[in-house]
Specification:
The complex is a heterodimer of chains A (198) and B (550).
Chain A: H1 4-15, H2 18-24, H3 28-41, H4 58-71, H5 85-94, H6 101-118, H7 130-140, H8 144-158, H9 170-175, H10 189-197
Helix pairs in contact in A: 2-8, 4-5, 4-8, 5-8, 6-8
Chain B: E1 16-21, H1 27-36, E2 41-44, H2 59-64, E3 75-78, E4 86-87, E5 91-92, H3 101-104, H4 114-123, H5 138-153, H6 178-189, E6 194-196, H7 235-241, E7 245-248, E8 252-258, E9 264-270, E10 276-286, H8 292-299, E11 324-331, E12 344-348, E13 364-369, H9 374-380, H10 390-400, E14 404-411, E15 420-428, E16 434-439, H11 444-463, E17 468-472, E18 479-480, E19 510-512, H12 527-546
Parallel strand pairs in B: 1-2, 1-10, 2-7, 3-16, 5-18, 10-19
Antiparallel strand pairs in B: 3-4, 6-12, 8-9, 9-10, 11-14, 11-17, 12-13, 13-14, 15-16
Helix pairs in contact in B: 1-7, 1-12, 5-12, 6-11
Classes of the chains: A mainly alpha (198), B alpha/beta (550).
Chain lengths: 198, 550
């Protein structure tokens, strides 16, 4: 899996849910293939929306997009929707995370079953009002499906844009991360202050 | 540092002087020492050769998918011999590629100290443990620490508790990060003595390699600039440049062969097409790490060695040590931007030695660390009792990401006969060989030391002005990057596997040098010691070969 203390933490953070761990178990060769696939599929500038989905139906995509948008919402900065996390999900489920497709979509079906039980007449999560979406997800927080969606949403939000999410590096800009290959000191406020004091 | 000519290729049927199994922290050095001494060497590396331009800042591929670990086998785990081991309960982190763990390690480069070699005589026996003195002392190893630092490239500055050194560090410390400044502030306020962390990362250009560019991707990643002093682009090209050393990747050794006289004759391995090959050699050196080395010995059973090669003592695979670990975090008012530059820039050795007043055995050191890969931080970097999704989570993530640092504790593991690497009776690896079985339970004193250092870490963070601190709960080890002690060195063939020159007591032309050789595990950062041992072993083994003593 990962290395040193880093991995200890992520191991705890991720493997606490079996489904999260399953996402981590894919073959690296599949990941490489997925990156190439994503690069080929990357839309050229100016390509009109909507792009065709690889594995999701439009309804499923709308539901997963709505869930991701609750997990990492839009405020005065971009959220999962602007970062196109659902594109990351679709591409991942089509390639390196293909083994997760069935359990994830099964979990979504179950969630939609719950939607209809609670609000007869409404068939899909995406059709709920935002406050009801939130209410339902709070009740589902401990389910493997929700934990898998949290994991996948955050990975889609902050991983390399080449995987389909983190569009325009939106996730990185929100938290103040910048992926550069070279930096110079000072790196932060406290070492800058210390250097001035010397 | 490129090889001066195309690297030599040996046909497996040609008897070379040495087969070295493993090309990591130790194997790369041994290969270079032997080849530059005029001997012919084939290095069998089970993983591929990946060159620095192929390293990427890709968390999914590198961290989540273990792209550089290439673990095809998996292993089983149990806490004690009375349990049936199950897969997936523990992670052993090592990397199957040319350069091994030296490619992806964080590059902490702590020397052991005098005490690490003589702790048994200083403290007396600890009941129920295998704590022993080493057959060599710090003084014996010092020249080789120096050689490693100067040949590989290490940056640092001695501190008040450092052991004596015959030469200064070749390079000054890396620039201090904000975490280092705050760590120093907190530690000094508590009357402690922080110092620059020694790192096998270049602070200035050195031996044709560029200085660190502070990209921030050390821990778990390969360095695309070659500023991290991996064997991949330091000693391995030097070995290849002699024209006497072939590094053969994708070569997975399944067995060390012996003749009727009990001498090793070479290594049988699977090539990249899973086809068996046999490389003949006059002698074999195992450098496969503290888990793979004992496994290979246990796989190499024969009528002459029914309990595994070099295992007349029964000690092969026993006394496995991982090093203790704890982690704490603090968030500060202003940005630290810990995603930039090396992982750790300050360390504190005030708690290095065991202190009877604490009521338990152990020692260690906390360091100031970044924990800032964006995906990893988003998944697990925030306090666990806070929100984990939604608007409130996002607010905290935005606030904390650039303002958080870690203080991590690194500490002792007592050698226990019951902590072992053995062969699983049921599970097979991808080649049909018995999978590795890990049996490990932390000694209560090891857990006490982890908690002790975590308490000190929280004090340091608070004294530095953290507005909030939090802990990763200390628990029994379920993930290990340091694999130590499983073929321990000693003078007595009844209680150790190799002698003080890394020669197997049972087999005159078999040598073993890697984390498995360690008698005690130090305080948490074993790579400098593994590499110093490798330089020392390489020198002695070459001398044995020249004198016809193999």
């Amino acid at each position: 899996m990962l290395a040193d203390p880093l991995s200890r933490r992520t191991f705890l953070a991720v493997s606490s849910t079996a489904l999260g761990a399953a996402w981590l178990a894919a073959d690296p060769a599949l990941v490489r293939a997925a990156l190439e696939h994503a690069a080929r599929a990357a839309r050229s500038p100016g390509t009109p929306e909507p792009v065709p989905w690889e594995v999701l139906t439009p309804d499923q995509a709308a539901d997963l997009d709505a869930i991701a948008a609750q997990i990492f919402p839009t405020d005065d900065t971009p959220g999962a929707r602007e970062a196109r996390v659902v594109t990351f999900l679709d591409r991942s489920l089509a390639t390196w995370a293909a083994q997760q497709r069935e359990p994830l979509l099964h979990g979504l079906d179950e969630l939609n079953g719950e939607v209809e039980r609670r609000w007869p007449g409404t068939k899909r999560f995406a059709n709920l009002a935002p406050e009801r979406q939130l209410e339902l997800l709070r009740a589902q927080e401990q389910t493997p499906f929700f934990q898998q969606m949290r994991f996948a949403t955050l990975v889609g939000m902050f991983s390399l844009p080449a995987y389909g999410g983190n569009a325009d590096k939106a996730g990185w800009r929100v938290i103040g991360f910048e992926d550069r290959y070279a930096w110079q000191p000072p790196f932060g406020d406290y070492d800058a202050e210390a250097a001035r004091g010397r | 540092m490129r090889p001066a000519r195309p690297a030599v290729r040996f046909h497996p049927s040609r008897t070379v002087d040495f087969v070295v199994v493993g090309s990591g922290a130790a194997g790369g050095i041994i290969a270079k020492e032997l080849a530059t001494a005029g001997l012919t060497v084939v290095v069998l590396e089970q993983g591929p050769r990946v060159e620095p331009p192929q390293f990427e800042h890709d968390e999914i591929k590198t961290l989540f998918q273990s792209a550089l670990q290439n673990n095809p086998a998996g292993f089983t785990f149990r806490r004690s011999a009375s349990e049936t081991a199950k897969p997936g309960q523990i992670q052993l982190l090592y990397h199957r590629l040319v350069g091994g763990g030296s490619v992806m390690f964080t590059a902490n480069y702590w020397r052991f100290r005098e005490i690490d070699f003589i702790e048994r005589s200083r403290l007396g026996a600890i009941s129920g443990t295998g704590l022993e003195d080493w057959p060599i002392t710090y003084r014996d190893l010092e020249p080789y620490y120096t050689k490693a630092e100067w040949e590989l490239g290490v940056s640092g500055e001695p501190g008040p508790f450092d052991p004596p050194r015959t030469r200064p560090y070749p390079l000054p410390p890396l620039p201090v990060k904000s975490s280092g400044v705050l760590f120093e502030r907190g530690a000094r306020a508590l009357g402690l003595h922080p110092q620059p962390a020694p790192l096998a990362i270049l602070s200035q250009p050195f031996n044709g390699r560029p200085a660190c560019q502070h990209c921030g991707y050390c821990l778990g990643f390969g360095c695309e600039f070659r500023a991290k002093s991996s064997t991949l682009y330091t000693v391995i090209p030097m070995a290849e440049a002699t024209g006497r050393c072939e590094v053969r990747p994708n070569s997975y050794v399944r067995r060390i062969e012996v003749d009727r006289k009990g001498r090793v004759t070479g290594a049988t391995y699977f090539d990249e097409n899973k086809k068996e090959q046999f490389q003949r050699a006059r002698a074999v050196v195992l450098c496969c790490n503290g888990s793979e080395t004992p496994r290979l010995l246990l796989l190499s059973v024969s009528s002459r060695f029914p309990n595994g090669l070099a295992n007349s003592s029964g000690v092969v695979g026993k006394y496995l040590m991982f090093n203790g670990y704890s982690s704490s975090s603090g968030v500060f008012e202003r940005p630290l931007n810990e995603f930039k530059s090396v992982t750790a820039t300050r360390v504190l050795y005030d708690f290095y030695e065991s202190d009877p007043r604490r009521g338990f055995y152990g020692g260690g050191a906390p360091d100031a660390r970044s924990f800032a890969y964006p995906t990893i931080f988003a998944l697990g970097g925030l306090p666990h009792d806070g929100p984990s999704w939604g608007a409130a989570y996002k607010r905290i993530l935005r606030d904390y990401y650039t303002r958080t640092m870690n203080v991590d504790g690194h500490s002792t593991s007592l050698p226990l006969e019951t902590n072992t690497i053995s062969l699983d009776p049921d599970m097979k690896d991808a080649w049909g060989l018995p999978a590795m079985r890990v049996t490990y339970k932390d000694h209560p004193d090891d857990l006490a030391m982890m908690r002790f250092l975590q308490d000190r870490a929280i004090e340091i963070l608070e004294a530095a002005g953290a507005r909030r601190t939090w802990r990763q709960p200390v628990q029994e080890t379920n993930l290990a990057a340091h694999l130590l002690g499983t073929c321990r060195m000693g003078d007595d063939p009844r209680t150790s596997v190799v002698d003080r020159y890394h020669r197997a007591h049972d087999v005159r032309n078999l040598f073993i040098c890697d984390g498995s050789s360690l008698v005690t595990g130090g305080r948490g950062q074993p790579t400098a010691t593994i590499q110093a041992l490798a330089y020392r072993a390489g020198e002695h083994i070459a001398a044995f070969a020249r004198r016809g003593e193999i």
